[in-house]
Amino acid sequence: MENENILDTNLTGGLLVDNVAKQAFSETGSWGKFFAILMFISIVFMVLAGIGMIFFLGAMGSAYGAPGMSIGITTGLGLFYVMLAALYIMPGIYLWRFSTMIKSSINSNDQTQFTNAIVNLKSCYKFFGIMTIVIMGLYIVGIVISVFVGLSF
After folding, report:
1. Contact 101/32 with Cβ under 8 angstroms?
2. How many helices and strands (H and E) does the chain possess?
């Protein structure tokens, strides 16, 4: 087997990264940078949509007498969009850092930078994991409230 030397037990006591893994990490860094850029573009669009809701939809609802589009509702929805966009900033930064550090560390064989890249990837996944747990909890609370409200009628 050609990958038998992956574990180094002599001097460093750590894990060696062979050429196949380096190539895979390099490609992962490219895809990570692509997704980080998409995240930042999405954040900009979400902020613009939120600002648009705050300033334009409420004014249009008031001007045309649409009771469902009051200034309070559209402002709340717009602020929700802006807060949601703010929530995606940190994972985007973590993914961008991973992408730039992993490629640089592979090109320069820098173990410290490689470790920092992996730590940023871990932080990105940790953030998404915690966010997923919180959202699932909110769904459960929403379902329970919906059932009790439905039973009260």
Report:
1. no
2. 5, 0
